[in-house]
Amino acid sequence: VQLVESGGGMVQPGGSLRLSCVASGFTFRSYDMSWVRQPPGKGPEWISAINPGGGTTYYSDSVKGRFTISRDNAKNTVSLQMNSLKPEDTALYYCARGPPYGIIWNDYDYWGRGTQVTVSS
After folding, report:
1. Most buried residue, 14, 16, 21, 70, by most Cβ within 10 Å?
2. What is the three-class DSSP state of 119?
């Protein structure tokens, strides 16, 4: 199993970024997929998930209304469109296989290496 994130970078407050994660080594269309972030000096935080078919999405309160998760099962890809970014969104963003609202150390069995997002003026 491999998960590879891309799309991170530095952006000014109010800006946008789109993260992508390409999955391989498992039947992607059969699994919930999530995004988890870890701000500097803090623990990881689940922020969004999508069900296997892509028809149901979930968000933490911290990103609801600003971030949009989507997936393309034909391309084994899950994406996170991030709008209205704030400095507190600065974090290492991970793609992970697992359900919404999961227990970080228990419910996510595969993780990518992460992509850094920095929101600063």
Report:
1. 21
2. strand
Span 39-70, pLDDT tens digits: 999 999 999 999 999 999 999 999 999 999 99
Strand 115-119 and strand 9-11: the pairing is parallel
Dist CA 116 CA 103 (whole Å): 22
The distance from CA 57 to its chain's CA centroid, rounded to whole angstroms, is 12
3-state helix, strand, coil split of the chain in percent (to 5) is 10, 45, 45
Query: Which class for 91: exposed (0-12), middle (13-18), buried (19 or more C-beta within 10 A)?
Result: buried
96, 110 Cβ separation under 8 angstroms: yes
